[in-house]
Design goal:
34% of the residues lie in helices and 18% in strands. It is of the alpha/beta class. It has a single domain, classed as Aldolase class I (TIM Barrel, Alpha-Beta Barrel), CATH 3.20.20.70.
């Protein structure tokens, strides 16, 4: 994948990591535009290539009464408005084959959730849209096995593919990032570290996923030091009241300081050649 081929991407020649960031789910137009405006301001200042992230629906829920979205088309139209307002690319995740063509009309990057990355029909449907495809590594998969998912995209004549590590299941209620997997996956595709989902604590007895947001900077720093191409962070102005994944999201007030520190680390890493 060539970063500069993503529509409306900025600072692709800055030699910086790129950023996928935004709320877990689109809760409404005002919140999406507000978050995007803040992240755009920060990334322009730090010369970080930026892709706005927001799920148009949430399908992988522990409980049937969990928030799943505000309506597919309504949320997708908000993603398009974010893109048009700030002239930035957007990414959303898809869950069914029929989602691919629909979402491709509104966003620039289609993301395959970790639980679904072995679903061949879904991966192929995303690849055949011609959009960039972001494959999230299954919590149950080795880094080496992700090359097969990448090949599925490439064999559909789509070279625009990246992979994202979001941790590996450790026991029943915790995730671990094995940083040895970063250079392995970078051999066959640009590699992103999903910092916030790597800090999830799933399968809680309440049916609501927990998290360790206090460890976000620790994991992010290690990712940059290991050489990841991109960083994925879910962020919100009020994580405690977010409708999805609030327990592991970063409060947006801390984002600029975090990204500034990561840029400094990246410059040091680049100096090593």
């Amino acid at each position: 994948m060539k970063l500069e081929n993503i529509p409306q991407i900025k600072h692709s020649n800055s030699n910086n990591f790129f950023l996928l960031a935004g709320p877990c789910a689109i809760e409404g137009e005002e919140m999406a535009l507000r978050i995007a405006e803040k992240v755009v301001e920060i990334t322009i200042k730090l010369e970080i290539p930026y892709i706005f992230k927001g799920s148009f629906k949430k399908a992988n829920r522990s409980r049937i009464d969990s928030f799943t979205g505000i309506g597919d088309e309504k949320a997708l139209k908000i993603l398009r408005k974010v893109s048009e307002t700030f002239e930035i690319p957007t990414v959303t995740d898809i869950h069914e084959v029929s989602d691919a063509a629909m979402a491709a009309q509104y966003v620039d990057v289609l993301q395959i959730p970790a639980f679904l990355v072995r679903q061949t029909d879904l991966v192929v449907a995303a690849a055949e849209t011609g959009k960039v495809v972001n494959l999230k590594k299954g919590q149950f998969m080795s880094p080496e096995s992700m090359k097969h998912a990448v090949r599925k995209v490439e064999e559909c004549s789509n070279e625009q593919v990246m992979v994202t590590d979001r941790g590996t299941m450790f026991g029943y209620q915790d995730m671990i990032v094995d940083f040895r997997g970063i250079p392995t996956m970078r051999e066959f595709a640009p590699t992103v570290l999903d910092v916030t989902h790597s800090l999830q604590q799933p399968n809680q007895s309440s049916g609501v996923t927990g998290g360790r947001p206090d460890m976000i900077e620790t994991i992010a720093r290690a990712g940059i030091a290991t050489g990841v191409d991109g960083i994925f962070i879910e962020t919100h102005f009020d994580p405690a009241n977010a409708k999805s994944d609030g327990a592991n999201m970063l409060n947006i007030q801390y984002l600029e300081k975090l990204l500034g520190n990561l840029v400094a680390i990246r410059k040091t890493v680049n100096s090593f050649g």
